[in-house]
Amino acid sequence: MARKRKDKTADPEVLVVGLQGSGKTLLVRRLKAHLVGAASATGRSSSGSSSAAEATFSTDAVPTIGVDVDTVKGKKRSLTVREVGGAMKPLWPTYFDSCAAAVFCVDVSDESTMASAAVALVEAASHESLRGRPIIAALTKLDAPVVATRAEVWNLMPAGELPGVRWFGSSAYTGDGTREIAQAIWESIEGR
Ligand SMILES: Nc1nc2c(ncn2[C@@H]2O[C@H](COP(=O)(O)OP(=O)(O)O)[C@@H](O)[C@H]2O)c(=O)[nH]1
Ligand SMILES: [Mg+2]
């Protein structure tokens, strides 16, 4: 007798990867505060109680050891969000197959890691297991005093060669851009 496959009914999974300290955990925390999805097709996504979310938002982050799994609730359904840290980079591809979309965090306030972040992003985006899946590149920490310019980022990331990647700037500290990323995640999952 065939067993019902668990992943048929499971929430779609979003994989969040990026180098250590690139802002994955705080971005996920912001995504949890944005109740979007499903009903978004009406074009009227309510902003929810953003001031309440603001009051409870904490920027304290304990470095993720290995893999962190969380649930982001949308208006009609939930997503499983799996954060896989930079220390596990060689193992990222093992999670590509099961994800419905991937978010790649790049810390644009840290010059010293931008080049390796670019390599990691290009590697991931061109990996055969991710091919054809929606990929969101989140350029994080835009609130930081010094951030790479768009030209500098473009110089490092061959954006034109990564046609499946959608780019967003964000700050988990201020919340800027995080709603757009949440929206893009839902859109990419609904569009599949
Ligand atoms: N300035 C600034 N710092 C951030 C932002 N997001 C995360 N950080 C800081 O960067 C460090 C790593 O953040 P975290 O979310 O744990 O990164 P992760 O290792 O990729 O999960 C922490 O000290 C955070 O406070 C942001 O939007 N702006
Ligand atoms: Mg983390």
Task: Explain how this protein is built.
It comes from Chloropicon roscoffensis. GTP binds at residues 18-25, 86. Mg(2+) binds at residues 25, 64. By secondary structure, the protein is an alpha/beta fold. It has a single domain (11-36, 62-190), classed as Rossmann fold (3-Layer(aba) Sandwich). The chain has 7 helices and 6 strands; from the N terminus they run H-E-H-H-E-E-H-E-H-E-H-E-H. The longest helix has 15 residues, at 111-125. The protein is globular, with a radius of gyration of 16 Å. The two termini are 30 Å apart. Bound molecules: guanosine-5'-diphosphate (GDP) and magnesium ion. Residues 24-25, 63-64, 83, 85 line the site of magnesium ion (MG). Residues 18, 20-26, 59, 61, 63-64, 105, 140-141, 143-144, 171-173 line the site of guanosine-5'-diphosphate.
Strand order in the sheet with the most strands = 2-3-1-4-5-6
Q: Specify Rg, calculated over alpha carbons.
A: 16 Å
Number of helices, where a helix is a run of at least 4 consecutive DSSP H or I residues: 7
Q: Helix/strand-derived class? A: alpha/beta
Described by strand count, sense and barrel closure, the largest sheet is: 6 strands, mixed
Sequence stretches where pLDDT stays below 50 over 5 or more residues: 1-5, 39-49
Number of domains: 1
Globally, the shape reads: globular
Q: What percent of residues adopt helix (DSSP H or I)?
A: 25-40%
Bound ligands, each once: guanosine-5'-diphosphate, magnesium ion
Overall strand count: 6
CATH level-3 fold name = Rossmann fold
CATH architecture label name: 3-Layer(aba) Sandwich
Order of helices and strands: HEHHEEHEHEHEH
Mean model confidence by pLDDT? 86
Distance between the termini: 30 Å
Indicate the proportion of strand residues.
15-25%
Q: In the CATH hierarchy, what is the class?
A: Alpha Beta
Keywords: GTP-binding, Magnesium, Metal-binding, Nucleotide-binding
InterPro entries: P-loop_NTPase (IPR027417), Small_GTPase_ARF/SAR (IPR006689)
Pfam family, one: Arf
GO molecular function: GTP binding; GTPase activity; metal ion binding
